[in-house]
Amino acid sequence: MEQTKQRCQRIGCNAFFSEDDNPEDGCSYHPGPPLFHDGGKEWSCCKQRSHDFSLFLDIPGCRTGKHTTEKPETKAAPSPNKPIVSPTVVAGMDAIKGTCLRCRHGFFCSEHGSKVETAVRITSSKLYSEEKPLDSIERPAVQPAKVIDLNAAQICKNKGCGKTFSERDNNETACSYHPGPAVFHDRLRGWACCDVHVKEFDEFLTIPPCSKGWHNANP
Fold first, then answer.
1. Coil/strand/helix, residue 197
2. What DSSP character marks residue 18?
Protein backbone atom coordinates (compact mmCIF):
# COMPACT_ATOMS: atom_id res chain seq x y z
CA MET A 1 0.00 0.00 0.00
CA GLU A 2 1.38 3.38 -1.04
CA GLN A 3 2.16 5.68 1.87
CA THR A 4 0.63 9.15 2.06
CA LYS A 5 3.17 11.83 1.25
CA GLN A 6 3.76 14.65 3.72
CA ARG A 7 5.31 18.08 3.24
CA CYS A 8 8.78 18.66 4.66
CA GLN A 9 8.74 21.39 7.35
CA ARG A 10 12.36 22.50 6.98
CA ILE A 11 12.65 26.12 5.87
CA GLY A 12 13.65 26.34 2.20
CA CYS A 13 12.43 22.85 1.26
CA ASN A 14 8.62 22.38 1.13
CA ALA A 15 8.98 19.10 -0.83
CA PHE A 16 6.61 16.16 -0.32
CA PHE A 17 8.02 12.83 0.91
CA SER A 18 7.15 9.49 2.43
CA GLU A 19 9.08 7.39 4.94
CA ASP A 20 9.95 4.92 2.18
CA ASP A 21 11.34 7.71 -0.02
CA ASN A 22 13.45 9.86 2.32
CA PRO A 23 17.20 9.63 1.50
CA GLU A 24 19.88 11.14 3.73
CA ASP A 25 20.57 14.02 1.31
CA GLY A 26 17.09 14.41 -0.18
CA CYS A 27 16.32 17.70 1.61
CA SER A 28 17.99 21.06 0.86
CA TYR A 29 17.16 23.58 3.59
CA HIS A 30 18.32 26.61 5.59
CA PRO A 31 19.30 25.70 9.19
CA GLY A 32 19.71 29.33 10.30
CA PRO A 33 16.98 31.94 10.88
CA PRO A 34 16.24 34.73 8.37
CA LEU A 35 17.48 38.26 9.05
CA PHE A 36 15.51 41.37 8.08
CA HIS A 37 17.13 44.80 7.98
CA ASP A 38 16.17 48.00 6.14
CA GLY A 39 14.14 46.18 3.49
CA GLY A 40 16.80 43.50 2.90
CA LYS A 41 16.34 39.79 3.62
CA GLU A 42 19.25 37.46 4.41
CA TRP A 43 19.75 33.86 5.53
CA SER A 44 22.03 33.88 8.58
CA CYS A 45 23.38 30.42 7.75
CA CYS A 46 24.77 31.15 4.26
CA LYS A 47 24.67 34.99 3.99
CA GLN A 48 22.59 34.77 0.78
CA ARG A 49 20.40 37.87 0.50
CA SER A 50 17.73 39.56 -1.61
CA HIS A 51 15.49 42.63 -1.42
CA ASP A 52 12.63 40.82 -3.17
CA PHE A 53 10.76 38.45 -0.84
CA SER A 54 9.81 35.97 -3.60
CA LEU A 55 13.44 35.70 -4.73
CA PHE A 56 14.53 35.42 -1.09
CA LEU A 57 12.30 32.36 -0.54
CA ASP A 58 13.66 30.83 -3.78
CA ILE A 59 17.30 30.91 -2.56
CA PRO A 60 18.39 27.22 -2.51
CA GLY A 61 19.05 25.64 0.87
CA CYS A 62 22.69 25.54 1.98
CA ARG A 63 22.53 22.25 3.91
CA THR A 64 21.25 18.78 3.05
CA GLY A 65 19.65 16.08 5.18
CA LYS A 66 16.53 13.98 5.53
CA HIS A 67 13.04 15.42 5.17
CA THR A 68 11.11 15.87 8.42
CA THR A 69 7.63 16.79 9.59
CA GLU A 70 9.02 18.43 12.73
CA LYS A 71 8.80 22.21 12.59
CA PRO A 72 12.14 23.97 13.22
CA GLU A 73 12.24 26.49 16.05
CA THR A 74 13.64 29.53 14.26
CA LYS A 75 12.88 33.19 14.89
CA ALA A 76 13.65 36.09 12.62
CA ALA A 77 16.28 38.40 14.09
CA PRO A 78 17.47 41.90 13.15
CA SER A 79 20.64 41.85 11.06
CA PRO A 80 23.77 43.44 12.52
CA ASN A 81 25.03 44.23 9.03
CA LYS A 82 24.43 47.74 7.75
CA PRO A 83 24.48 48.80 4.08
CA ILE A 84 27.55 50.69 2.91
CA VAL A 85 26.55 54.12 1.65
CA SER A 86 28.45 57.16 0.41
CA PRO A 87 29.13 60.17 2.73
CA THR A 88 26.58 62.21 0.76
CA VAL A 89 23.85 59.66 1.42
CA VAL A 90 24.86 59.43 5.11
CA ALA A 91 24.51 63.21 5.45
CA GLY A 92 21.04 63.05 3.89
CA MET A 93 20.08 60.24 6.27
CA ASP A 94 21.16 62.27 9.31
CA ALA A 95 19.16 65.29 8.16
CA ILE A 96 16.01 63.19 7.70
CA LYS A 97 16.42 61.32 11.00
CA GLY A 98 16.81 64.61 12.89
CA THR A 99 13.18 65.49 12.09
CA CYS A 100 11.65 62.01 12.58
CA LEU A 101 10.66 60.93 16.11
CA ARG A 102 11.05 57.20 15.35
CA CYS A 103 14.48 57.63 13.74
CA ARG A 104 15.72 59.87 16.59
CA HIS A 105 14.96 57.16 19.14
CA GLY A 106 16.69 54.43 17.16
CA PHE A 107 13.58 52.62 15.86
CA PHE A 108 13.43 51.39 12.28
CA CYS A 109 11.33 53.69 10.08
CA SER A 110 10.04 52.06 6.89
CA GLU A 111 9.38 55.43 5.22
CA HIS A 112 12.86 56.88 5.65
CA GLY A 113 14.51 53.46 5.30
CA SER A 114 13.00 53.11 1.82
CA LYS A 115 14.22 56.61 0.86
CA VAL A 116 17.76 55.74 1.90
CA GLU A 117 17.56 52.42 0.07
CA THR A 118 16.44 54.23 -3.11
CA ALA A 119 19.28 56.71 -2.78
CA VAL A 120 21.82 53.89 -2.42
CA ARG A 121 20.45 52.17 -5.52
CA ILE A 122 20.66 55.38 -7.56
CA THR A 123 24.23 56.05 -6.38
CA SER A 124 25.33 52.48 -7.20
CA SER A 125 23.69 52.61 -10.64
CA LYS A 126 25.40 55.91 -11.43
CA LEU A 127 28.83 54.59 -10.47
CA TYR A 128 28.29 51.45 -12.53
CA SER A 129 27.23 53.44 -15.61
CA GLU A 130 30.32 55.66 -15.30
CA GLU A 131 32.67 52.69 -15.10
CA LYS A 132 31.20 50.66 -18.00
CA PRO A 133 30.04 52.06 -21.36
CA LEU A 134 26.65 50.77 -22.46
CA ASP A 135 28.10 49.03 -25.53
CA SER A 136 30.45 46.97 -23.32
CA ILE A 137 27.72 45.54 -21.08
CA GLU A 138 26.90 41.93 -21.90
CA ARG A 139 23.24 41.35 -22.65
CA PRO A 140 21.61 37.99 -21.91
CA ALA A 141 20.97 35.75 -24.88
CA VAL A 142 17.38 35.17 -25.95
CA GLN A 143 16.24 31.81 -24.61
CA PRO A 144 14.31 29.47 -26.93
CA ALA A 145 10.74 28.54 -26.06
CA LYS A 146 10.58 25.79 -23.45
CA VAL A 147 8.80 22.55 -24.35
CA ILE A 148 6.87 21.25 -21.32
CA ASP A 149 5.96 17.61 -20.73
CA LEU A 150 2.30 17.63 -19.66
CA ASN A 151 2.93 14.72 -17.27
CA ALA A 152 6.20 16.00 -15.80
CA ALA A 153 6.20 16.84 -12.09
CA GLN A 154 6.82 20.54 -11.37
CA ILE A 155 6.87 22.64 -8.20
CA CYS A 156 4.53 25.63 -8.07
CA LYS A 157 6.37 28.89 -7.34
CA ASN A 158 3.30 30.93 -6.42
CA LYS A 159 3.71 32.52 -2.98
CA GLY A 160 2.23 30.30 -0.28
CA CYS A 161 1.78 27.20 -2.48
CA GLY A 162 4.92 25.13 -3.22
CA LYS A 163 2.94 22.03 -4.27
CA THR A 164 4.04 19.49 -6.88
CA PHE A 165 1.80 19.41 -9.97
CA SER A 166 1.65 18.42 -13.64
CA GLU A 167 0.34 20.62 -16.45
CA ARG A 168 -2.20 17.95 -17.37
CA ASP A 169 -3.90 18.34 -13.96
CA ASN A 170 -3.47 22.11 -13.75
CA ASN A 171 -6.60 24.27 -13.75
CA GLU A 172 -7.90 27.69 -12.68
CA THR A 173 -8.62 26.59 -9.09
CA ALA A 174 -5.78 24.09 -8.55
CA CYS A 175 -3.48 26.52 -6.70
CA SER A 176 -4.06 28.23 -3.34
CA TYR A 177 -1.67 31.18 -3.04
CA HIS A 178 -1.05 34.79 -1.96
CA PRO A 179 -1.30 37.21 -4.95
CA GLY A 180 -0.10 40.21 -2.96
CA PRO A 181 3.41 41.05 -1.73
CA ALA A 182 4.74 40.19 1.71
CA VAL A 183 4.74 43.10 4.18
CA PHE A 184 7.30 43.59 6.98
CA HIS A 185 6.75 46.56 9.30
CA ASP A 186 7.39 47.23 12.99
CA ARG A 187 8.36 43.58 13.65
CA LEU A 188 5.12 42.35 12.08
CA ARG A 189 5.04 40.05 9.05
CA GLY A 190 2.08 39.46 6.80
CA TRP A 191 0.51 39.57 3.34
CA ALA A 192 -0.94 42.72 1.79
CA CYS A 193 -3.56 40.71 -0.12
CA CYS A 194 -5.38 39.32 2.93
CA ASP A 195 -4.27 41.82 5.61
CA VAL A 196 -3.10 39.13 8.06
CA HIS A 197 -0.05 39.98 10.22
CA VAL A 198 1.86 37.96 12.83
CA LYS A 199 5.03 38.47 14.87
CA GLU A 200 6.95 35.22 14.34
CA PHE A 201 8.45 34.17 10.99
CA ASP A 202 7.24 30.57 11.47
CA GLU A 203 3.68 31.84 11.93
CA PHE A 204 4.04 33.99 8.81
CA LEU A 205 4.92 30.91 6.70
CA THR A 206 1.72 29.17 7.85
CA ILE A 207 -0.75 31.97 7.03
CA PRO A 208 -3.41 30.26 4.82
CA PRO A 209 -3.45 31.39 1.15
CA CYS A 210 -6.33 33.69 0.23
CA SER A 211 -6.70 33.20 -3.55
CA LYS A 212 -7.23 30.43 -6.11
CA GLY A 213 -5.66 30.16 -9.55
CA TRP A 214 -3.36 28.18 -11.86
CA HIS A 215 -0.18 26.56 -10.59
CA ASN A 216 2.90 28.32 -12.00
CA ALA A 217 6.39 26.80 -12.05
CA ASN A 218 7.93 29.89 -13.72
CA PRO A 219 6.48 33.06 -12.12
1. strand
2. B
